[in-house]
Design goal:
With about 350 residues, this protein is α/β, with parallel strands linked by helices. It is about 35% helix and about 15% strand. The chain has two domains: about 120 residues, Alpha-Beta Complex (Aspartate Aminotransferase, domain 1); about 220 residues, 3-Layer(aba) Sandwich (Aspartate Aminotransferase, domain 2). The strands form three sheets. It has a seven-stranded mixed sheet with strand order 2-8-7-6-5-3-4, sandwiched between helices.
């Protein structure tokens, strides 16, 4: 055994548990909230051509993508930071504000990485239980954010894994009740799938709240989960600090090119997203007809509150050739995938009501 001392906060970190991967036989992978479609038209060919320079380092920072995102969101380039997936960029945002003796607040259950990222900073990790129907309890979050020593609050909208989106009115009330020196990180990884007209509009809210940053990703709606590109938007003073701690050369040329091209294919992206939304609606209403009562989904996934039966249900799905994402003693998240996989999942669900 090595005698090198490990920071206690790191030794105590929970393990990130990714969705199950397909192995050995034909299965439908509905466990990781991925797009069921390949990258958008032309992207793969352009990426393949760019691999001729694989022996060269990428730019230290992906300036072309930063410029494209700034133009797309009508912001200044200094308001955009890009990193290796939204997980990395969220972690960088926490790193610049939180350390030992601080507090990081987040709803729970929510994104698996939140307690890990909070723990890496050394700060106290403060989970706040969700409200009824799998909704984020903004009042409880505001109360937790008001406790001295709180440096950041993470909010996922729509919430992963339960599905509901935060509403604009409750978000505005939350921001009014949250101290100005607390960084609020609004994680909008699934925003392209939102159809709730009352849902918070994170980027529009940036103009009103100097302590707000918004995280987005190319992993979901754009079908680039394997390229690992995420970004953060906010006031330049915060973004500059995030850039300072971002790992240099962390976005490969191929990933930057794929993201820039995909950003310019909005019509094609929206067409695919609409198909996912329609299939999500099909799943939701089919489950309701079977006797389930899932929260209203606003991402590319649905949530089943199975409690102690979560692992057994996931095993039954696996035996039927469908991989889902169980959270032991809590519930099961099911991604919207291929129609055949969705129908096979619904067949299993019908036997469990």
């Amino acid at each position: 055994m090595a005698k090198v001392p490990i920071r206690p906060s790191v030794a105590a970190l929970p393990a990130y548990r990714a969705g199950a991967r397909a192995q050995g036989r034909l299965v439908y992978k509905l466990s990781s909230n991925e797009s069921p479609y390949p990258p958008l038209p032309g992207v793969m060919a352009a990426v393949a051509d760019s691999m001729v320079d694989l022996n060269r380092y990428p730019p230290m920072a992906p300036d072309d993508l930063v410029a494209a995102l700034a133009c797309f969101h009508d912001l200044e380039p200094g308001q955009v930071a890009v990193g290796a997936g939204s997980v990395a960029i969220l972690g960088h945002a926490l790193t610049v504000v939180a350390t030992d003796s601080d507090r990081v607040v987040y709803p729970w259950r929510s994104f698996e990485a939140y307690p890990i990222m909070a723990g890496i900073t050394g700060a106290e990790s403060v989970p706040v239980p969700l409200g009824p129907g799998g909704r984020t309890d903004l009042d409880a979050l505001a109360a937790a954010a008001a406790v001295p020593g709180t440096r950041a609050v993470l909010i996922c909208s729509p919430n992963n894994p339960t599905g509901p989106a935060v509403h604009q009115d409750e978000f505005d009330q939350f921001m009014a009740a949250t101290p100005d020196d607390v960084l609020v990180i609004l994680d909008e990884a699934y925003v392209e799938f939102v159809t709730d007209r009352d849902a918070v509009a994170g980027i529009a809210a940036l103009a009103n709240y100097p302590n707000l940053v918004v995280a987005r990703t190319f992993s979901k709606a754009y079908g680039l989960a394997g390229s690992r590109v995420g970004y953060l938007l906010g006031r330049s003073s915060v973004i500059e600090a995030v850039r300072a701690v971002t790992t240099p050369f962390s976005v490969p040329v191929m990933a930057e090119l794929a993201a820039v091209m995909s950003l310019g294919l909005q019509a094609e992206m929206r067409e695919r997203v609409e198909e996912v939304i329609q299939r999500r609606s099909f799943m939701f209403h089919a489950l309701r007809a079977e006797g389930w009562d899932p929260p209203e989904p606003q991402g590319n996934f649905l949530w089943l509150d199975l409690g102690a039966d979560s692992l057994s249900f996931a095993d039954a799905c696996k035996r039927a050739g469908v991989l889902v994402r169980p959270f032991p003693d809590q519930g099961v998240r099911v991604s919207v995938g291929e129609q055949e996989g969705v129908e096979r999942f619904l067949e299993v669900a019908a036997t469990w009501v």
